[in-house]
Amino acid sequence: MMDLAEKGFGDEEMVLRNSDVKDVEDILARKSMVNQLGQALEQAKAEIKDLEGDKQRSDAEIIHLRQSVEVGKFKGRLKEDEIRAHQSTLLFTERLNDILKNIRAQA
């Protein structure tokens, strides 16, 4: 029967209404429901695709932020090491000056 509609003898609804099928309204209602569900499914697929893209962008941002935090921590440790190295240099210079004063005093 649907073959008639496919062959161009009218649309499916017309073919059904002109047939001996008793539950035409039920069939048309179910067909409409199937079409609506199909459209809803396609919309849901599109939304899922968009959300997957959003998630990928969010994941990339999180990775970037974590890297930025690690770089900040590393810079902080470098600064601490720089301060300690400078303090050690000052202390070494003071001790060297003390030793030179003692040698000059003894000479």
Question: In a few lines, what is going on in this structure?
Answer:
This protein has 107 residues and is an all-alpha fold.
Report on the structure:
This protein is an all-alpha fold and 107 residues long. It has one domain. Helix content is 88%, strand content 0%. The chain has three helices and no strands. The longest helix is centred in the middle third of the chain and has 83 residues. The mean pLDDT is 89.
Number of helices: 3
**Helix-strand category:** mainly alpha
**Distance N terminus to C terminus?**
123 Å
Rg measurement, Å: 41 Å
**Estimated share of beta-strand residues:** under 5%
Q: Outline, from the CA principal axes?
A: rod-shaped
Number of domains: 1
Q: Tell me which oligomeric state these chains represent.
A: single chain
Whole-number mean pLDDT:
89
Count of β-strands: 0
What characterizes the major β-sheet?
none
Helix content estimate: over 70%
Protein topology:
Blueprint lengths: L1 H5 L5 H6 L6 H83 L1
List key phrases describing it.
107 residues, mainly alpha
